[in-house]
Specification:
There is one protein chain. By secondary structure, the protein is an alpha/beta fold. The chain is about 35% helix and about 10% strand. The chain has helices at about 5-30, 40-45, 80-85, 140-145, 150-165, 180-190; strands at about 60-65, 70-75, 110-115, 135, 190. Strands 2-1-3 form a three-stranded mixed sheet, with helices on one face. The chain has a two-stranded parallel sheet with strand order 4-5. β1 (about 60-65) and β2 (about 70-75) form a beta hairpin.
Length: about 190
């Protein structure tokens, strides 16, 4: 067998390394959950499967609230809120899944908040009007009990929340048309995240 020159060894070594990298990337993308990477990004995200590497059409969402493993997750484009909740380990006890639109499509950078049942939240009548209302599970009827909120605005708030898979704060309602500064003050006083 003839001996290889130094330059031939370098070329063969570079080809071997390139093939290993391509093979490892193909295995990582094709096998498993479709997530990639670890290290600093995973540590920053609490150890969840998240990375700063680009994926073909993937999106990144933050799943919070009443789920078993809240965190930041990479999801395939076109995934739904129900997929994100499942990826976060499913709903925990006390979750109010009816308060979110589980069929809504996810968008990159979205936060999905699964609300919890507030203590004594089963009463939705006039007695419940005096206490704070949970933002994640508020019904149109409950929102109408807030000063400055009528049936049309209450419906807009519920639709806005459902389109986003939940809301993290009352401040996000400032984007709903028909809500001015005075109404925002009423909302801050009566709603809890």
């Amino acid at each position: 067998m003839p001996e290889l020159s130094r330059s031939q060894l370098i070329v063969y070594g570079a080809v071997a390394v390139a093939l290993l990298l391509v093979g490892a990337r193909a295995i990582r993308v094709d096998g498993g959950s479709g997530t990639a990477g670890s290290g600093v990004a995973a540590a920053a995200a609490g150890g969840d499967d998240f990375s700063f590497e680009g994926g073909g059409g993937d999106i990144v969402v933050d799943v919070a609230g009443a789920v078993r493993r809240p965190g930041v997750y990479r999801m395939p484009a076109g995934a739904r809120v129900v997929d994100a909740v499942k990826r976060a380990g499913g709903a925990s006890s006390g979750a109010v899944l009816e308060a979110i639109n589980r069929a809504a499509r996810l968008s990159d950078g979205q936060q999905v908040v699964v609300p919890t049942k507030a203590a004594g939240a089963s009463a939705a009548g006039p007695a419940a009007a005096s206490g704070p209302i949970g933002l994640g599970g508020a019904t149109v009827e409950q929102l109408e009990t807030i000063d400055g909120i009528g049936p049309v605005t209450a419906q807009k708030i519920v639709e806005y929340r459902d389109q986003r898979g939940g809301l993290a704060s009352v401040e996000q309602l400032d984007d709903v048309s028909g809500i001015g500064p005075a109404t925002m003050e009423s909302l801050r006083a009566r709603l809890q995240p």
